[in-house]
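Quick one: structure tokens for this chain, please?
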Amino acid sequence: MSTMKTALVLNGPNLNLLGMREPQVYGTKTLADVEQICAQACAAHGLVLDFRQSNHEGVLVDWIHEAGRMQAAGTLAGVVLNAGAYTHTSVALHDAIKGTGVPAVELHISNVHVREAFRHHSYIAPAARAVLCGFGVQGYALAIAGLLDW
């Protein structure tokens, strides 16, 4: 019997404010609602959900390192990473993904390409296997489904 693999869903800074922060951009769903969407998607695809949020860059790096150990053990389906603003600033997250070799999806709730110019550049994208943006919180379910092909 094979062991179910884990989808590690990591959320970066200010994602804990979902539902309150700029609802015209991010919608009215809360992070708890997003976790429920992810739980349903994982259940539908036979994956275990590990859902986390931190406002601290180093914590996110540590979690990606943990994902690397899971990948080496054969228990990781992949990482869905909504790095928030760290997408546009963090070489450390880029290096963690590259260094561990984890299959990662860079995810954004909004379409970052129609927003401020500073949001158009991603340090994560060159290290990620895929980038998904603009589907609202349902993008999480799409990203989880995408992990199945890796």
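Residues 80 and 105 are 5 Å apart (CA to CA).
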